[in-house]
Amino acid sequence: MILNKNDIGILSPEILLVGFIVSIITFGAIYNKSHRQKLITSFSLISLLIVFVSLLISKTGTTFDGLFVNNDFTKIMKSIVILAILVALSMGERFRSKNKLVFFEYPVIVLFAVLGMLLIISANNFISVYIGIELQSLSLYVLTAIKRDSNKSSEAGLKYFILGALASGIFLYGVGLLYGFSGSTDFNIIQSYISSNEKISPGLLIGMIFILSGIAFKLSVAPFHMWTPDVYEGSPSSVTAILAAVPKIAAMALLIRILYQPLLGMTDSWQQIIIAISILSMLVGALTALRQTNIKRLLAYGAIGNMGYALIGVATTSETGIAATNLYMILYSIMSLGVFSFVLAINKEGVQVEEITDFAGLAKSHPSVAAILAVLMFSMAGLPPFGGFIAKFYIFMAAVEENLAWLAIIGILTSVVASFYYLRIVKIIYFDELEDSLSKPLEKSTIWPAYLSAFAMIFSFIYIETLIFLSEKAALSIF
To answer: Cα-atom radius of gyration of the chain, to the nearest Å?
Structure first.
């Protein structure tokens, strides 16, 4: 297929990213100097900025015979992915240097993962979806196990790989069933086929269940969450920051596009599944996190619960609900990156600490850092007037508007339970006795996203209307 000017205009971000990846790999192979890692990280960040600008000015439409689509929804979700990766990659540089993760391949693998996420979000055919999923997944498997001298990192990478391969196989089997019954893997053709048949065949229902199971793994929602705590804990923290904030945006975008495009005619069937997964995720996230003492495992279970809240908006089957989910994902990614920049920066005598009890007395030794962490914990708990409260408010209101008030009540109750373990961290840093003092001062190159995130949560009322407008604009292009 020969690309014309219109195709290049639609694909410009992805084309540029591929070009940058090839150039950076070539440079890394040729330029073998001690400061190669910093140069390549800088080039990667500049590349992502250029790709972001090209995304903003890229054309809307479809190309590759309908395999790839670019519209308001995909552009907004891809923008979030690129900006989140920019922050995650830049704040982890100092951590990687200290922990001897100075492989020039690291930022290159991150760029490959970003390319996979962009393809996932814009895919308009299950074949292109699967290519994007595998490109993202293989990159993240390698990143998880990249600390080769760590047994925990190797174990986390192996668990992630085995379970991820199983989830990909389940997803692909569901795609095969949809193809067998509809005769196509194209989103539009499948949608037309399902809409034209009054009775949904059992084969299509089974295929839908397998596809949703595969995506649920990528979202780390219950009951497909088993890998999340172990992978979060075992991965290098700079990798965990990426896992926590970015792939979920692509997976949620994919879920929304699949449910509201090819599977739109099966709404009555998948709505019940989404509601069940949402409730189970909120319960597992809230109750299991209560017993965690490791900050990364606690945040892993918190992420499971947060994805459960986001799925409430998807379950409403309304434009308002999808807009609320989009808003929730944006604000959650901001909070998550802020918390993980704190995790990356905190250490004792050069050794990173992960036990929550090690934060005791933080308010005395690092009062400003303790304040921003408290703000982020209040926001994660969904307390007003912080950004996290606004995100949950819009999700619950969307459920009430669509006669799912009972689901909103479950969300509120689990949110109250979840508040306990977030507020427990605040209690520890302010009221528990100071033991071994944390290193001082903290790395400014690592902690800055936490400050920005905290200010964003405090002053969310300033920009929230803009985010709501963008979320509604993205939802409108889906409907």
So the answer is: 22
Tell me the per-residue pLDDT of 297-343, one tens digit each, with 9 for 90 and over: 999 999 999 999 999 999 999 999 999 999 999 999 999 999 888 88
pLDDT score for 77: 93
Q: Per the structure block, which two tokens stand in for 305?
A: 């619960």
Question: Does pLDDT of 50 surpass 90?
Answer: yes
Per-residue pLDDT, 351: 66
User: How many other β-carbons are positioned within 10 Å of the β-carbon of residue 307?
Assistant: 27
Provide the residue type at 228 as one letter. Answer: T
Locate 340 and state its tokens. Answer: 């993980």
Cα–Cα distance for residue pair 290/212, rounded to 1 Å: 28
What is the spatial distance between Cα 416 and Cα 276, in angstroms, rounded to a whole number?
20
Ranges 25-34, 65-74, 142-151: which has the least confidence: 25-34
Could you write out the DSSP letters of every residue in 285-337? HHHHGGG--BHHHHHHHHHHHHHHHHHHHHHTTSHHHHHHHHHHHHHHHHHHH
Contacts of 426 (CB under 8 A, 6+ apart): 373, 374, 377, 378
Cα–Cα distances (Å) from 121 to 67, 130, 247, 305, in that order, read: 12, 11, 11, 23
Distance CA 413, CA 416 (A): 5
Tokens standing for residue 102: 């100075």
Amino acid at 221: V
Q: Angle at which helices 105-122 and 247-260 pack, to 10 degrees?
A: 20
Are the beta carbons of 375 and 386 closer than 8 angstroms? yes
- Residue 334 and residue 390 in contact, taking contact as beta carbons nearer than 8 Å: no
